[in-house]
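User: I'm curious whether this sequence folds into something compact or stays loose and floppy. Could you predict its structure so I can see for myself?
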Amino acid sequence: MPITNGDELDVPENAEVELTLHDPYVLPAKATSDEERERALRELFASWDAYPLRVDAPRLTRDEMHERR
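Assistant: Here's the prediction. I'll summarize afterward.
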C-alpha cells in the first residue's frame, strides 16, 4: 500500500511491517546486457573528459549543496 510523507498508517500495536523506500529522483537502470552497461560507462567517462571540472570553479556552501527545490 503506497503512502506519501505525512500519511498515517492504521497498523495494530506490535504488528510486524515491512517498509520499502523509493527515491523519486533515482531512475532504475535500463541496460539489459553487460555490453550496454560498458557502453554507457564509456560514454560517461568520455563526457567527463570532454567537460572537466575547473579547478577555479566557485565552491558551494553546505546549504547550497543540500538545497531542495
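Summary: The chain is about 30% helix and 0% strand. Helices lie at 34-50, 62-65.
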